[in-house]
């Protein structure tokens, strides 16, 4: 069995990270999280500590430019020689130097059915648009904002009277499942990221 090594990048609570760590705790799961990175002192780094996974933080405020920050972030990621880098609730747009170095082995989860509702407020935007269905996308990261090739999507129904928090919570449940499945499919060769990126 080929086992993928993952570096996971987070900015917040790390619920997607935890889903991957729990999946990888099963010896039969063909991927392992080798390091967790963040752009902040993210609460989700506690999950890495709990599972005994090394972590690092590269704060943009410590650098004179976005490109300098990106170069250091890339250097930290490359220390672990990952097969795949997963942005799981990482809330910053990666500089081109990072994307060109890592993509297509660089994926992201997004709480909408892209290309609908890109950007940081996807759940709020879906509610404002009055759609009956939104969902989750796992996609390859390119240099745009949520514009990369789609790997997999799953729908989530918008219920009457949903608040942003309620809808986002249901989306997160699906997002965790879909991310774990996407990593499994990449590890098993059911998804070829180079082919996906070439579409």
TrEMBL record:
(6R)-10-formyltetrahydrofolate binds at residues 66, 91-94, 108. Its EC number is 2.1.2.2. InterPro entries: Formyl_transf_N (IPR002376), Formyl_transf_N_sf (IPR036477), GART (IPR004607). Pfam families: Formyl_trans_N (PF00551). Keywords: Purine biosynthesis, Transferase. The record marks 146 as: Raises pKa of active site His. Residues 6-183 form the Formyl transferase N-terminal domain. N(1)-(5-phospho-beta-D-ribosyl)glycinamide binds at residues 14-16. The active site is at residue 110. Pathway: Purine metabolism; IMP biosynthesis via de novo pathway; N(2)-formyl-N(1)-(5-phospho-D-ribosyl)glycinamide from N(1)-(5-phospho-D-ribosyl)glycinamide (10-formyl THF route): step 1/1. It catalyses: N(1)-(5-phospho-beta-D-ribosyl)glycinamide + (6R)-10-formyltetrahydrofolate = N(2)-formyl-N(1)-(5-phospho-beta-D-ribosyl)glycinamide + (6S)-5,6,7,8-tetrahydrofolate + H(+). Belongs to the GART family. Catalyzes the transfer of a formyl group from 10-formyltetrahydrofolate to 5-phospho-ribosyl-glycinamide (GAR), producing 5-phospho-ribosyl-N-formylglycinamide (FGAR) and tetrahydrofolate. This is Phosphoribosylglycinamide formyltransferase. The lineage of its organism: Bacteria, Bacillati, Actinomycetota, Actinomycetes, Micrococcales. The gene is purN.
